[in-house]
Amino acid sequence: MRNSLLPTLAVLVLLALVVLIPEPETVDAPLDALPAAETAGEDVAEALLELSPLELYRPPDWARQQGGRDAVKRSLDRLSWGPHAALLASRDQLEAHQGSLVDEILARLTALGDSDPILVSKLIATIRDEDAADPRVLEELNRRCLSPSGLVTKAALRKLARVPYPEALGGALARRHDAEEPIRELARAVLAEAVRRGDPEARAYLLQDLRERPSTPNQIDIAALGDAPYDAETMDVLQLVLERAPITERFATLGALVRHGDERAIAQLEEIIAGADHMQRFNALFVVAMAGRPIAQDSWRDIVRRGLQQETSFLMSVLTRSIQLGDADAPLAFELLEDIANNPGHSSQVTALDVLYRLGDPWALERTRDELQREQGGFLNQTVDRIMRGPRAQAIELADVAEQRFADAELGKVEQVILLNMLAQLKPQSAVEPVIAPLMAGEPLSRENVLPALVALGEVGLERLSTEVGDDRGAGLYVLAASHVRAPSALPVLERIATDPERATALRRYAIDGIVRLSGGEREGALRRIAEASPRSAVSDRVMLLFWNYL
To answer: What DSSP assignment string belongs to 80-142?
Structure first.
């Protein structure tokens, strides 16, 4: 009889779990319900549909019963039932209340004990670094490092890695030889950060580990010693590892020694770089580039002459460092970079020109200015990419050149789009009309080219579009731009669109969604007013879901 009840009980348990799981709501509009497609345009409607979907779960009754006006409790409660997007929203909300969360978080952690590892790890993540100075928090984090749950242990270790106090080492030291590699490596990373800060206890533990196991060192430990303050004991241990470790770890150890200016390590790497073994040479150049110390100057010309892209890319990092340090070989470094940049057959020509431009080299700046005035298609796009990755002051200076070329009536369409995207980022006041006027006139919205320019206009574009929201196309473009830009200044216009009964329902829905996408502002009040304007409707129901999931 008892055995016959087991299947029935199993079904009942599953049904109970289904009832307890918060009910998700699908937010993707079907393709036949494009928002105001007839008047806003299918191009705008489809771009709205491509916005990242909002995850909406109905809050459980216990959460609603605790009330929705206490933002701290609401956000902490949401960690236990909301999806990933709600977790991120909770963290954003809790940022505004930092300094007053410790007692509440510790109370919840105590109440949970070792149950619900997922919720425990989420709560640990909400503790800010500054609050970890509280002895109660340090004690809790170190205790959680010993949790039987790997998820909780890793959450505690990640938090302890950013705590600059000796007391933070307890949990990491307990797990640095853990059987599980992810936990072991994370504990080592915590120890390494303490060593970099100059913590003597952490350094002593790390040196002891390396002294006991010089033939099987950990690269995290070696890198930490390379960044740590110099002392004779550290150098002796690194030399011991260099003698006994496998080849990969030996290269890492040479890099650590070079960062401390060890002459023997420098000589060894220079010998390898001057040698004939390509893989050894490649590894040595990588180590030197990561160490950030310009050495092996006698081999620089040979590396450039060979023209092997992988070798040259590491060499250019070394050359850049030489210039930044202003050392005696900086003129040679400039000369070699210019040789590469002037050689169309060299595999690293474009990269060398990019490096020189970022360094403010006058020749590279003039070369870039000339390209901006005459290049076309992909070559112009390559030039603009270089400008946008370089110093902001140089980019703004060259924006005037781009604006002059953009005014050329014979400029091709591809070149117009490239320059317009550049201007939208650097001189939005000059780009706002060329971007928005054609869109309002019915020119299709290209999601590959025009949409990035519209978003790059930022608040300048939103201000211009706010004069067009009487038109469905203008309103759709405004909602789209605001959802990407996320500026709080967009809130009043989004609220006006959301409460306009003459608008298509789908467009109003996207305006409501746009409000919670904003990075701040008085969103709660706006959502309450929208709900009051449409009581007991699909609009008010959606507002409730947005409120509970994102505010």
So the answer is: TT--HHHHHHHHHHHHTTTTS-HHHHHHHHHHHTTS-HHHHHHHHHTS-GGGGGSHHHHHHHH
Residue 63: HSE in the Cβ half-sphere, 13 Å Cα cutoff: 24
Q: How far is CA 435 from the centre of its chain?
A: 28
DSSP H stretches of helix in 326-359: 330-341, 349-358
Q: What is the reported pLDDT for 29?
A: 42
Residue the block writes with tokens 């781009």: 402
**Which is more confidently placed, 216 or 27?**
216
Are 327 and 292 in contact by the 8 Å Cβ rule? The answer is: no
Alpha helical stretches, state H, 231-361: 232-244, 247-259, 263-273, 278-291, 300-306, 309-325, 330-341, 349-358
Q: By C-alpha distance, which of 510, 541, 370, 543 is closest to 37?
A: 510
Beta-carbon neighbour count of residue 531 at 10 Å? Answer: 20
pLDDT at 60 over 70: yes
Give the distance, in angstroms, between the CA of residue 106 and the centroid of all CA atoms in the same chain. 29
Measured between alpha carbons, how far is 385 from 396 in angstroms, rounded to an integer?
A: 14
CA–CA distances in Å: residue 451 to residues 47, 181, 249, 386, 505: 9, 44, 48, 21, 24
**Quick one: pLDDT at residue 176?**
87
Q: Which H or E run includes 57?
A: strand 56-57
pTM to 2 decimal places: 0.84
Quote the mean pLDDT of the chain. Answer: 88
| CA dihedral of 128, 132, 133, 136, whole degrees rounded to 10 | 130
Q: Which of 7, 12, 13, 51 is nearest to 29 (CA)?
A: 51
Single out the residue of 449, 396, 452 nearest to residue 426, CA to CA.
396
Q: Which two tokens stand for residue 495?
A: 């609220």
Task: Indicate the residue type of 290.
Answer: M
In the predicted structure, residue 4 carries a pLDDT above the cut 70: no
Report residue 261 CA to chain centroid gap. 34
Condensed to tens digits (0 to 9), the pLDDT of residues 425-469 reads 999 999 999 999 999 999 999 988 899 999 999 999 999 999 999
Q: Which two tokens stand for residue 386?
A: 């270089």
What phi-psi label fits residue 67: left (phi over 0), alpha (psi between -120 and 50 degrees) or beta? left
Backbone angles phi, psi at 57, to 5 degrees: -120, 140
